Amino acid sequence: MDAPVIDLLQLYPRDMNIYGDWGNVLVLRKRLQLRGYDVRLHEYNPGDEFPGQVDLIVGGGGQDSGQNKIQADLHALGGRLKELADDGVPMLAICGLYQLFGNFFKTHTGDVIKGIGLLNVDTVGGPTRMIGNTVLDSSEFGTVIGYENHSGQTFLKEGVQPFGTVTKGEGNNGQDGTEGARYRNVVASYLHGSLLPKNPAVADFLVRHAALRRHGSFNDVRLDVPYEAEARESSAARPR
Fold first, then answer.
1. Which is the catalytic residue, given 95, 108, 209, 215?
2. Where are the domains of the chain?
3. What is the gyration radius of the CA atoms in the chain, in angstroms?
4. Does 129 appear as a known binding residue?
5. Contact at 8 Å (CB) between 153 and 136?
6. From the CB of residue 47, how many other CB atoms can be counted at a distance below 10 Å?
7. 3-class secondary structure, 85
């Protein structure tokens, strides 16, 4: 019997893939494979043909120059991505892509990079950089651990929930204690590091909903990953 297939798409890996964000793709693929799924990995860069079947979407961070490079293409793709999000496709958007999934990013120089409005959030360039090890408390995922490095200040609007509440670090804007954003099965965050190797609960949320949407079931076997707990404890204990 053939293994069930999951189509995993990495958005803009050429321009939006810094601070270890590629590791998120590797974790999702591996955790699916360990549960018996056949993972078809796709990459999408500006000008590519968007795959006909997509079950799970991951995108990373980038500099302002990278955001400018993908802006026009992302706008053309925005309607399709919003339809997929509304239909329950799980997505992980990190840092720069998180900002562009929102309404706009106004840089510190006053330039405005328009987003696609998939998330009802606004971002403005701040005067200081928020950088360092970060820990969140999430009602859905428990303790979330990562590393932030951004000067953009993001503010959540109506219909969007935070990914978590900051217990160490600055979060979305250094003011309201929130970090990241949640909409349906979309998870958006400033946390690099990569995020998913240290946060298997988030990874399993994404793969579970990808499998349920595609196949109607999920092989939810517990994975025995050596040193997973130790890695989380070590990361959480690191100074800011």
1. 95
2. 5-218+226-237
3. 17
4. yes
5. no
6. 6
7. helix
* Fold classification of 5-218+226-237 (topology level): Rossmann fold (3.40.50)
> Token pair 């995020």 is at which residue?
195
**Is 95 assigned a catalytic role?**
yes
> Residue 204's closest CA among 219, 191, 183?
219
Neighbours of 223 (CB within 10 A): 13
DSSP, residue by residue, 8-24: EEEE-TTTS--TTTHHH
Give dist(CA 231, CA 227) in Å, integer: 6
Residue 192 annotated among the catalytic residues of the structure: yes
Q: What is the DSSP string of 97-125?
A: HHHHTSSEEE-TTS-EEE---SS-EEEEE
Span 110-138, pLDDT tens digits: 888 899 999 999 999 988 999 999 999 99
d(C-alpha 183, C-alpha 179), whole Å: 13
CA distance 189 to 92: 8
Q: Is pTM, for the whole model, over 0.85? A: yes
| Alpha helix stretches (DSSP H) within 108-199 | none
Q: What is the pLDDT of residue 175?
A: 96
C-alpha to C-alpha distance for 169 and 146, rounded to whole angstroms: 10
Cβ within 8 Å of residue 211, ≥6 positions away: 4, 6, 32, 37, 55, 217, 218, 219
Per annotation, catalytic residue among 75, 192, 209, 215: 192
Low-confidence ranges of the chain (pLDDT < 70): 63-66
Distance CA 232, CA 185 (A): 24
